[in-house]
Automatic annotation (TrEMBL):
Residues 8-154 form the L-erythro-3,5-diaminohexanoate dehydrogenase N-terminal domain. It comes from the Bacteria. It comes from Micromonospora globbae. This is Zinc-binding alcohol dehydrogenase. Coiled coil: none annotated. InterPro entries: KDD_N, NAD(P)-bd_dom_sf. Pfam families: KDD_N.
């Protein structure tokens, strides 16, 4: 029986969903409710790429070899250490007659579901990738299920740029939702306090979009926290935050001090967009009682976050950014088009890669 969520593609262990599976069936033949994509480019998630890069000491050939091994062994791209994957762009080759995704052969699309649950085969040995960047040109095929999500790529944007934006489009969408609720609640209650937002990793892809989304949703004051002077200067020039602060996200006191100094108060909403472990306690300490911390990093230890909040007696709500909010692709692409600072940061990042 063909499952809407891809259970029929799970090879081992039996009974789990594709994301939790160790190995998937990535054969190219599709069921009536599936879609096959001819893959053009993968976008590895930041935490996964960083782990592979550090493990192999910056040896791009070794990184490439391990990515190939993971895909060949597991039938999907899921880093066994971080548990994360990424996403891809490609062209629809075949759509089953009962697929609800509305895709047609020939359309160029970005998958908005993780590579950790997407059956994937690579056929070119990643010969055009040097193993030194998150974006991976490749040839092969991938399978989308009935409950998968994909967005047709805009024809007026560079596909690599669109891929980079859509890879993190859940972050600005959830940030906007959380911030707008704070703004609406305070207006309804007659509370004149401004809504304040801190984004840790504000110069990165998800961070820059989250800052733009927070401002558009009504945040009165925002601060971007970055680790080095070059990122501080880039984010300042982009004009996406009211203040930019230097702090190591793994140093709780430094992060809290930087945020409180920049905003004058702890943040109502703190968004974590960094790809290194050990950033949970700083985000919690920087957030006001009754505030919200949104974790978008796959490097987050959720046990560490829960126990850390308990140990700090912090009355904060903690949310896991799951990458999906209705309308997230349109919102992120809209920010790219409307905010020159967002575009500059993304284009400079792609140029550096």
């Amino acid at each position: 029986m063909t499952s809407l969520v891809g259970l029929h593609r799970v090879l081992e262990p039996a009974g789990v969903l594709p994301q939790a599976a160790w190995r998937l069936d990535a054969r190219p033949e599709i069921a009536a409710n599936e879609v096959r994509i001819r893959v053009e480019r993968l976008n590895l998630d930041a935490a996964s790429f960083r782990q592979l890069w550090e493990k192999h000491g910056g040896d791009g050939d070794a990184v490439r070899a391990e990515v190939l091994e993971i895909i060949a062994t597991r039938g999907k791209m899921q880093n066994p250490v971080t548990g994360s994957g990424g996403m891809l762009i490609g062209t629809v080759e075949e759509a089953g007659p009962r697929s609800p995704l509305g895709l047609r052969p020939g359309q160029r699309v970005a998958t908005l579901v993780s590579l950790t649950l997407t059956p994937l085969v690579v056929t070119d040995g990643l010969a055009r990738w040097d193993g030194r960047s998150e974006q991976v040109p490749c040839e092969g095929h991938a399978i989308l299920f009935a409950r998968s999500i994909a967005a047709v790529l805009p024809e007026d944007e560079d596909p690599q740029l669109s891929l980079a934006v859509l890879d993190v489009c859940g972050a600005p969408a959830l940030t906007a939702r959380v911030v707008s609720r704070y703004v609406a609640d305070r207006a309804r209650e007659g509370d004149a306090r401004p809504v304040t937002v801190a984004v840790i990793g504000g110069a990165g892809k998800s961070g820059s979009l989250s800052l733009a989304a927070a401002r558009r949703a009504g945040a009165a004051r925002t601060v971007g926290v970055v680790p080095v002077a070059a990122e501080r200067d880039a984010l300042t020039a982009a004009g996406l935050a009211d203040a930019v602060a230097l702090a190591d996200a793994r140093d709780p006191v430094a992060v809290s001090t930087a945020v409180t100094t920049a905003l004058g108060v702890p943040a109502d909403v703190t968004v974590v967009c960094v790809d290194v472990p050990g950033c949970e306690h700083g985000a919690i300490l920087a957030t006001a009682d009754g505030g919200t911390v949104v974790f978008f990093s796959m490097a987050t230890s959720f046990a560490g976050a829960a126990l850390g909040a308990e140990g700090l007696a912090a009355d904060v709500t903690m949310l896991v950014g799951n990458g999906y909010v209705p309308g997230h692709a349109e919102l992120a692409l809209g920010l790219l088009r409307a905010e020159p600072g967002v575009r500059r940061l993304f284009e400079s990042r792609l140029a550096a890669d």
